[in-house]
Amino acid sequence: MATEDLPSDFDIVILGTGLAESVVAAACSRVGQRVLHLDRRSYYAANWASFTFNGLLTWIQEQNEEPKPEEVRDWSGLTEEGEELIHLSQADSASITNLQVFSYASEEEEEEEAANTTEEEKAADEEVVKESSETESADSKEEEEEKEGAGEEEEQANQAEGEEPEADQPHPSSPGQSEPSREKISYAQLVKEGRRFNIDLVSKLMFSRGSLVDLLIKSNVSRYAEFKNVTRILTYRHGNIEQVPCSRADVFASRQLSVVEKRKLMRFLTSCVEETEEQTAYHGRPYLEFLRDQQLGDNLQHFLLHSIAMVAEDTPTEEGLASTRHFLRSLGRYGNTPFLFPVYGLGEIPQCFCRMSAVFGGIYCLRHSVHCLIVDRDANRCKAVIDSRGQRISCSHVVMETSYLDRSKVATPPRFLSRAVLITDSSVLPSESNQQISMVTVPPEGGSPAVKMVELSSSSMTCIPGTYLVHLTCRSVGSAHQDLSPLVTRMFRTTESQEEDRRPSVLWSLYFNMADGMASQVEGQPLPSNVHICHGPDSALGHEDAVQQAASIFQRILPEEEFCPPAPNPEDIVYDGDNSSTGEDRGDMGQDDGQNPEQNQNQENPDPEQNQNQENRNQNQENPDPEQNQNQENRNQNQENPDQEQNQNQGNPELQRVGPEESPSSS
Amino acid sequence: MAIRELKVCLLGDTGVGKSSIVCRFVQDHFDHNISPTIGASFLTKTVPCGNELHKFLIWDTAGQERFHSLAPMYYRGSAAAVIVYDITKLDSFQTLKKWVKELKEHGPEDIVVAIAGNKNDLGDIREVPMKEAKEFAESIAAIFIETSARNAVNVEELFQKISKQIPPLQNAEVESNDSFKLTRPPNPTTRRCC
């Protein structure tokens, strides 16, 4: 496993493995470009990453470390006449702030565990990173103010900070953890089973007719991952959690709605699919006003505004309707809600695109960065980069995540997201199945922003049986803790309280702020025309922003090429047995060219001389109907949905028809 | 017979013959100048095993191992892993332990592990004694076999051994596994409302 040098000539160098960068990498490799994809981090997916519990603890430590002073080295020996250097930032110290950790799980070792592991204990000791906030002065002041008011939770947290909190609680929990909760899970157990967690830094869902799902299917990247339906949509209202009826069956089965409301809701949902004159009349006026005038009543208005459109009260009607339609279009494609969640967490998705890029020749190197760009002064184009080992690598385009830009030249992101991650011991709304995946909308209340909450069960492979992983996200007003902890203390138990308190207990929680990608501004920065910037995750629930960024960067780099055409099916790759290429060092499965000329749609290459992958290009053959086989194989799987009653799926034809019908495959 | 899809991931240093083994198994083909994999996400081959058909989905590293940058998603859901070394290169055997560790860290807990000492047609320049490799495999409860992708020795056998070690499917597993792959959605079974 000795490290060798990187090749020194590429078409495209990509820095950062976040979603947008990874999609660009896959798209470029797919059409024959030589891609070098680097990330200075030791993990894939940048701020889109998912971590095991232990991996997350390490990440937290890293965030709290002082950034190392950037070493200034003289690279002038590597430049030529007429070239100048743009130095890049060697660390991302701006996108994550206000990190705070609270542990409520018992720290007592269970006997059997204490007996057989010393390693875990060590790990547990190291991870006493409890409550560590960033050094920003304004924030610490705010925090103090907050401590006065926050009461119970803070006390508890401070207690947890000590070495022996809650030691008075012996927990005779058995290892059979699949029983539904209330059996205490210790901190040691979280660490011991830490690798079974996949904790996302961003919390998003995939609209089943959103652009990410479309792209995954179109490119065949979807075959690298599996997905689950979000099984229910909940809303927090008057201190209670209620289920939002969103399929026809839900509507009719709903106990909260009266018969009249049910009819009104169905009529409204059916009517808003198409633009009507009545709707046009409300353009520019708040959606809430439009809803009010529909005489829907408080219940329905709440559901429609906060849980279906998921917009603010002052959002204009046309925007509210567009969101509503987006929601309705995605309904019933795979399941009973419009949303999908990738098994093992969202961090899988960028990795899947990276794999697609690698499969088409992209070269991957983590823990590796670029120190500077070499710019041709006259052409104002980047000709090459100098990597962290001092190698000059030439390229015709550079794509990079915002955090690689020299911080002194980028305005601090004016807006942040507030995030909280909780590990809890039961669901916010227990039901027959303990494997629900729930989207919970919390409307804004008295100055606190609207919160999107996603509760994942162990079936999503993101947490261990007997626990739930709860992600909270909102646009930040203050620090993440200020924004979200009041809601957390209302909805969850963070202290030992009476037995009749049925709220889920928080075992462990993390708060942090992440820069809102949408708000990051790099405009003022004069960059060479062939350097393309991707910003980090935005605050929206879906992934439209990242996909759109990737598509537009690809369009700028390769305007003539198709964006992510389908990769061939494994069954369709044909060997013809006379191959003479030299890539032995890649150590991959060798294979020879595809043969059917009319299927080789990817033979066009803007720069064939430079293209080392040339001999393999016509392997990128198109399968005339790539989805067909898979569709057959997976059709049954798609229809399986044990968590929902069978009749729900079949019983909502009306809402399923609300969206445009799917054209029956490509036949 | 029920077809069961089994993901198998290949591990091992660059150049030990991971791809050649798969190529021999799937295509019964060997190429001295093997080319980098372009465009193959995974290769498949179906073999009978008891009352089941095992459809192996064999994933290669796509070169991501070259700079130690294999993504955790590579291991997800693997039923088995084949760690390949080259019997003529001691280095490639010494790094086995790293791959085993990597697998323990990122791989599924119940994964079947097989260790394949490839290039056993080059016995006269052997650097790794078979006994030593076998003992190591036993110490981690892994399948052990020496193969030659070039001469088609023991490649079928390797996968047969894996097949035999795959635990029979539990009914409960089938029911609880409601995750799915995204494809063009099934034709909507629209029914008229009453």
Automatic annotation (TrEMBL), chain A:
Pfam families: GDI, RAE1_2_domI_C. The keyword Cytoplasm applies. Residues 134-167 have a biased composition (Acidic residues). It is found in: Cytoplasm, Cytosol. Residues 105-183, 562-667 are annotated as: Disordered. It comes from the Eukaryota. Keywords: Cytoplasm, GTPase activation. GO terms for biological process: intracellular protein transport; small GTPase-mediated signal transduction; vesicle-mediated transport. GO terms for cellular component: cytosol; nucleus; Rab-protein geranylgeranyltransferase complex. InterPro entries: FAD/NAD-bd_sf, GDP_dissociation_inhibitor, Rab_escort, RAE1_2_domI_C. One of its GO terms (molecular function) is GDP-dissociation inhibitor activity. Residues 592-654 have a biased composition (Low complexity). Residues 417-539 form the RAE1/2 domain. The keyword Transmembrane helix does not apply. Residues 119-133 have a biased composition (Basic and acidic residues). PANTHER family: CHM, RAB ESCORT PROTEIN 1 (PTHR11787:SF4), RAB GDP-DISSOCIATION INHIBITOR (PTHR11787). Belongs to the Rab GDI family. This is CHM Rab escort protein. It comes from Xiphophorus maculatus.
From TrEMBL, chain B:
SMART domains: RAB, RAN, RAS, RHO. Residues 175-194 are annotated as: Disordered. The keyword Nucleotide-binding applies. Keywords: Cytoplasmic vesicle, Endosome, GTP-binding, Lipoprotein, Membrane, Nucleotide-binding, Prenylation. Transmembrane segments: none annotated. GO terms for cellular component: early endosome; phagocytic vesicle membrane. It is found in: Cytoplasmic vesicle, Phagosome membrane; Early endosome. Belongs to the small GTPase superfamily. Rab family. NCBIfam families: small_GTP (TIGR00231). This is RAB31, member RAS oncogene family. It comes from Poecilia mexicana.
